[in-house]
Amino acid sequence: MRYTWASATHVGLVRAGNEDSVRPVNDGSTEEPVVIAVADGMGGAVAGEVASRVAIDAAFVEGATSEITPGERVRNGNDAVVAAVADDSTLSGMGTTLTLGLFLPDGSVRIGHIGDSRLYLYRDDELRQLTSDHTFVAELVAMGQITAEEANTHPRRHLVTRVIGTPEVNVDEFEIELKPNDRIVICSDGLNSMLRDREIAAKLKAASSPSDAAWSLVEAANAAGGTDNTTVAVVDVSL
Ligand code: MG
């Protein structure tokens, strides 16, 4: 299988800095294994920026070899953030989400995930969120206490329940089989807090390339208010 990817990231219209990180930074295409990741940092001053960068860099150690599982990569990211805080107390309290896919030549993608960034599969004009949001409101929805629609406007919707930067991390890990013409989207919550899934799907349908898709989604999030940093990585699957 061939994977062709692009990413876009933007500070948005409200925040002073961009605390999101994305890898790879450059667009590309390969039939070799490739890791694509998005991290959304949080913390005072520059700490959020540091957290997402430190975590994603540690997750990429030794490139895209399939010897290192996505779960191990996410745990490496966590260890690196914990170590950075131990070295520099001004970074205390920083954390980050981390969602990554290890795309393999056989057409499978292995996913490692913590936090409220998302990985979507767009297949046959349908958008499906494959990751779970590790948020307080997602737990309320799962328990049937509020609807998914109510979660979108809930005052505590930004409260993340599982995050990188804690001593123990519980990483979600799973694998799916991809098909030609599938499109995978990995994004920070700046995208899905501004756009409904049907709006994201419409942009994906209209976009002819991963780069087109990534930038049109970032522009749409900003047009809808851009209250957060928005980062989108798009991976197209072909034979
Ligand atoms: Mg965010």
Q: What can you tell me about this protein's structure?
A:
It is a single chain. This protein is α+β, with helices and mostly antiparallel strands and 239 residues long. It has a single domain, classed as 4-Layer Sandwich (Phosphatase 2c, domain 1). The chain is 29% helix and 29% strand. It contains seven helices and twelve strands. The strands form two sheets. It has a six-stranded antiparallel beta sheet with strand order 3-1-12-11-8-9. Strands 2, 4, 5, 6, 7 and 10 form a six-stranded antiparallel beta sheet that branches. Helix 1 crosses helix 2. It is globular and about 50 Å long. The protein starts with a strand and ends with a strand. Magnesium ion (MG) binds at residues 40, 188-190, 228-229.
Number of strands: 12
User: Quick one: biggest sheet?
Assistant: 6 strands, antiparallel
Bound molecules: magnesium ion
**Which whole number gives the mean pLDDT?**
95
In total, the number of domains comes to: 1
Q: Do you know the CATH topology?
A: Phosphatase 2c, domain 1
CATH class: Alpha Beta
Distance between the termini: 5 Å
Quick structural summary:
The protein is of the alpha+beta class.
Provide tags for this entry.
Phosphatase 2c, domain 1; six-stranded antiparallel sheet; 7 helices; binds magnesium ion; 29% strand; 239 residues; alpha+beta; globular; 29% helix; 12 strands
Helices and strands in order:
Blueprint: E1 2-10, E2 20-23, E3 28-30, E4 34-42, H1 47-59, H2 70-87, E5 95-96, E6 98-103, E7 108-114, E8 118-123, E9 126-129, H3 136-142, H4 148-151, E10 172-177, E11 183-187, H5 189-192, H6 197-206, H7 210-223, E12 230-238
Helix pairs in contact: 1-2
Residues 40, 188-190, 228-229 line the site of magnesium ion (MG).
